[in-house]
Amino acid sequence: MSLTTKPLALNMNKPQRMAKPSGTSPLAFVLEEHSLRGKDITGIENLSISELNLILDVAAKLKENKFDETQTLFGKGQTLAMLFEKPSLRTRVTFEAGMTQLGGHAIYLEGKLGERESVNDIGKNLERWVDGIMARTFEHETVVALAANANVPVINGLSNKEHPCQALADFQTLIEHKGNIKGLKMAYVGDANNVSNSLLLLAASLGTDFAMACPHKYEPQASIWMKALELAKISGANLTLVEDPKLAVEGADAVYTDVWTSMGQEAEAKEREKIFAPYQLNGNLLKHAKEDALVMHCLPAHRGLEITDEVIDGPNSVVFDQAENRLHAQKAIMALVL
Ligand code: CP
Ligand code: NVA
Asked: Which CATH homologous superfamily contains domain 34-163+326-337?
C-alpha cells in the first residue's frame, strides 16, 4: 500500500490478523478498531497526533501490566518477520521478546535487501506468510517499498531517515520522569540523523520545545525542518537550531545525544570525530541544563566520544529506561497495527 494512497483512517486494503486474537486480556481494548490497525509505521512523519498519543498511552498500560500473564493479545501463530540490513541489540531483542510476550513470535532475517531478489518481491512473499514486517534498512526508500508491496503492516526499525520506535520509547521515558511534556525543553546535541529527525517530529507534534545544536553542514534536511515547523505551528512547540551546544542546552529539561557516526557512515568516522568534538555531552555542557535535566541517549553509546562516562553513568541518566521502553513502545505498536 503506497503512502500516497493510504487513507489515514482504517486501512481497508490491509488484511486483518491471520490468527484470531484471544481478546481475554484486560488490555484487549487495543484490539478495538482505530486508525492504526493495518497501518505502516514508516516514520513519525506519517502518524497523526491522536495516533501518537494512542501508542504512548497503550505503551504505558502495557508497562504497568508487564507481569500480567494475560498480556497475550495475539492468537497463536501471529508472526512478525524482522529484516535487518544492519546490526542491532535493542531493536532485535525488544521486537522478538515483545512478540513472544504478546503471544506470537518473530523470525529474524539478516542481510542486504534487494540483492538476492527485489525488495518488492520480498514484500510480496512475506505478506503471504506473516502478519507484520519490521525492517532495519540503510535506505528509507527500502522501508517505503516494502510497505508499498506487502499487504501487512511494515514497521520501520531504523532507516537513514527515521527511527520512530526509538523516539516513541524516548517520549514514553520523558513522560514517566517529567509528567506533562507540553512546554518541556529537550535539547539535542550532535549529528542531525535518523534519531534526531524522529525526535524533532515527535516533539513538534506533541508540543515539546526542541533545541538542536549541530555543526554547520550536519543540520537536519530542510524538508524535515519545514515539516517540523508546520507541526509546531499547531502544537505550539518552540523549535530552535543553533551551532553552539551551550545555547541549545541552556535551561533544558532533557539533553539528548547520539553517535557522531551512524551505521553506514563508518568511512567518515575520523573526520566526524574532529568536527563533533565540541559537541561532546560532558559535565561542563550539562551544567547549562536544569539541575534535574534527564540525560538521554538511544544507545549504543561511544563513551568518551559523544558522551562521557561521568554523564552517561551519572544520576541524571535515563538511558536504560529508554532501552527498556523500546520493549513497551513496540509492543504497543505491534498490538495496535498487526
Ligand atoms: N537504539 C537502537 O536502535 O539500538 P540497536 O541498534 O541495538 O537496535
Ligand atoms: N544514529 C544511529 C542510531 C543507532 C541506534 C545509527 O543510525 O547508527
From this structure: Aspartate/ornithine carbamoyltransferase (3.40.50.1370)
DSSP character string of 75-123? PTT-EEEEEESS--SHHHHHHHHHHHHTT-EEEEEES-TTSSS-HHHHH
Q: How far apart are CA 134 and CA 146, in angstroms?
A: 10
Superfamily for the 164-322 domain: Aspartate/ornithine carbamoyltransferase (3.40.50.1370)
pTM of the full structure: 0.92
Catalytic residue among 136, 140, 297, 328: 136
* Cα-to-centroid distance, 79 and ligand 2 (Å): 26
Q: Taking the domains of the chain in order of start, what are their residue ranges?
A: 34-163+326-337, 164-322
Of ligand 2's listed atoms, the one at least distance from the Cα of 298 is 5
What phi, psi does 4 have (nearest 5°)?
A: -75, -35
Q: Do domains 34-163+326-337 and 164-322 have the same CATH topology?
A: yes
| Residue of 90, 188, 263, 302 to test ligand 2 pocket, by largest number of atoms within 8 Å of CB | 263
Joined together, the cell numbers standing for residue 17 give 490478523
Q: Report the separation in Å between the CA atom of 110 and the middle of ligand 2, taken as the mean of its atom positions.
A: 17
Assign 30 a pLDDT band (cuts: 50, 70, 90): low
Instruction: Place 64 in a pLDDT band, splitting at 50, 70 and 90.
Output: confident
Query: Mean pLDDT in the chain?
Result: 91
Confidence check: pLDDT of 25 > 50: yes
* Residue 7 scores a pLDDT above 70: no
